[in-house]
């Protein structure tokens, strides 16, 4: 599921970083848990978050919920310092690309 997503995103965006976090990364997911991802790409520069999500959602499987945070590399460095959600995720995330 995630391998296909990463492959397709790389075809469109080139060099990206993708991090899995939340219950799937911690190993305490439930049947109805969503998948939490952070996607970092320089190609997001100049795009609002809605457009970024529109690019990414085309590659998501329809049978599971996803929460995606999409950042430029510069934004990602900033949120790693300021966002409680991202700082918490850094403790257990898994880089998958």
Task: Explain what the structure shows.
This protein has a four-stranded mixed sheet with strand order 3-2-1-4. Helices cover 42% and strands 20% of the residues. With 97 residues, it is of the alpha+beta class. It is built from five helices and four strands; from the N terminus they run H-E-H-E-H-E-H-H-E. It has helices spanning 2-13, 23-26, 49-57, 73-82, 84-89, and strands at 17-21, 35-40, 66-71, 94-95. It has one domain (2-95): 2-Layer Sandwich (Beta Polymerase, domain 2), CATH 3.30.460.
Helix/strand layout:
Elements: H1 2-13, E1 17-21, H2 23-26, E2 35-40, H3 49-57, E3 66-71, H4 73-82, H5 84-89, E4 94-95
Parallel strand pairs: 2-3
Antiparallel strand pairs: 1-2, 1-4
